[in-house]
């Protein structure tokens, strides 16, 4: 995948992860994209290590599922490390 595909995948994955993970995430567009891209990398590494899939082509459903799950995992870890959010 090219850099533009990674950015689009990261943005959409990050947005979907923010919708799924409850609570308020005070992040902008760039932070959401970064969470999505890092989530895709983390999800791809976990899937490859478990031999259940890999990040492949942009239009593959498995690629999207792995990247969204990785972004959700990353958001949960960031929330756990960040402590309580201000209200």
Automatic annotation (TrEMBL):
Domain of life: Bacteria
Family to which the UniProt record says this protein belongs: Belongs to the UPF0410 family.
Keywords: Cell membrane, Membrane, Transmembrane, Transmembrane helix
TM region(s), chain numbering: 6-21, 28-50, 62-81
Pfam families: Transgly_assoc
Protein's name in the database: GlsB/YeaQ/YmgE family stress response membrane protein
Annotated compartments: Cell membrane
Membrane topology classification: Multi-pass membrane protein
């Amino acid at each position: 995948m090219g850099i533009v595909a990674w950015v689009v995948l990261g943005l959409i994955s990050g947005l979907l992860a923010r919708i799924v993970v409850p609570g308020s995430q005070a992040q902008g567009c760039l932070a959401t994209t970064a969470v999505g891209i890092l989530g895709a990398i983390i999800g791809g590494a976990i899937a490859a290590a478990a031999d259940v899939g890999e990040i492949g082509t942009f239009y593959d459903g498995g690629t999207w599922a792995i990247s969204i799950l990785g972004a959700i995992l990353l958001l949960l870890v960031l929330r756990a490390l960040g402590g309580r959010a201000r209200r």
